[in-house]
């Protein structure tokens, strides 16, 4: 009886073992069988109706285009971020502006007409329109001014846009294969490529490579399906880069700012510059924005200009935004206010025979960054037309001032000036007005964005004497180089060299128990800063301000600008 039971049990066990083995084998085999599931194209490109997905070089971006009247229109922010940042939306005038070195384009919405320096032009299509909160530009119109080409594909709508000037890596497929959404055989299929097809290589990993196919899919193929790779460079023979001519001078600039607070102060120029040597540009603080409509005040004076010219100095009139009743963002975001400022400055420059205009707009809010650089672009057109040198003052580069767009300034303006001071200022912690590291980094970071021959490094002729009272309250006073030296001598304080600051330093205790500290500006610090002009092959040096210097500095500065 037992033998019969055994004969029944063994086949059952064997069958179970076989079933289990088949199941395990199935799971193993399944793991290595590629998925045949396709990803929905609409899901991948995330478009509906007229919407058009945008593949910018090798990225499927969040911005969309619209296909309207069989024409491709691009979202303005996509144009600005990836293709051409000179298309500026002016909300105050309800139109697009575009600048070239010599022309201002005004492009109204829902129109085939536009103006170039007030001359009417016409296209055969609507150039721009607004839908909801978004503005769109015709791709062909953008292409007229932009290094780019594109392929428009349908079902679903997508545009592959190429604009990189650097060589890109291409590969020929040596096998037909599936292009997958992610690197892995279980990832859904986006499209198929055939042997001999060319793809652009985006990112190479251990087993998979991210590629861009000709039909606009960014996905992954196995490395062993890729054949020979080569470098390919985008060429657009019909496109001509705009040429921004500059009035940069043959000699290095040595500019000193002259603070002029009333018209009577102009008369003292001759005596003010009597001991000055080597200065070839003087910049009087003559102009200031007075209201949100862009009106300016002027302290300009013909005799001043005549005296400066006779002394071998050009005159670059400075304009500022320091009036506390003026909202800088309101002014810069208004087309009419910008134009008002520009026209008045040009009129003053021509009337008084100025050689240049110096823009000193400070504490620009990030939200006004686009408006600010548009002002500089527009100003450069008018200065270029009238052969007036345009210089722009900038703080030392920091992440929070990136919106000043020094790179664009370096293209459209003649000179970009670094205000290499105010590292420590009234209301800040105690410290030097400008440590050497602060100044040097300012120069390095600026020449990384601006041609060095257009960069002028401005140095301080002033010093802050810091006072920390017995309760820890901090105050400071800005004084001349001589006044700081005299204060140290009167206190009988010892001068030591501060290695960290790269400057002479002194401190003492006052009769009231307050701690006084000062980082001196003297021949030694001026020479260290002036050397940077040669070391980085800068376009020149500037100084704030005339009258705060010791006369010995002029010979020192002259050594490094000749």
Task: State mean pLDDT (0 to 100 scale).
Answer: 95
CATH class category of the largest domain: Alpha Beta
Strand percentage: 25-35%
Calculate Rg over CA atoms: 33 Å
Largest sheet: 8 strands, parallel, barrel
Could you give the distance between the termini? 118 Å
> Uncertain runs with pLDDT below 50, 5 residues or more?
21-26
For the record, the CATH architecture of the largest domain stands as Alpha-Beta Barrel
* Fold-level CATH name of the largest domain: TIM Barrel
- Give the CATH superfamily of the largest domain: Glycosidases
Approximately how much helix is present in the residues?
A: 25-40%
Overall geometric form:
globular
Total count of helical runs of at least 4 residues: 14
Describe this structure in words.
With 562 residues, the chain is of the alpha/beta class. It has 3 domains: 43-161, Copper Amine Oxidase, Chain A, domain 1 (2-Layer Sandwich), CATH 3.30.457.10; 164-232, SH3 type barrels (Roll); 253-461 and 521-559, TIM Barrel (Alpha-Beta Barrel). It is 27% helix and 32% strand. The protein contains 14 helices and 34 strands. Strand 4 (87-90) and strand 5 (95-99) form a beta hairpin. Helix 8 (335-351) runs parallel beside helix 9 and helix 11 (436-447) packs parallel to helix 13. The protein starts with a helix and ends with a helix.
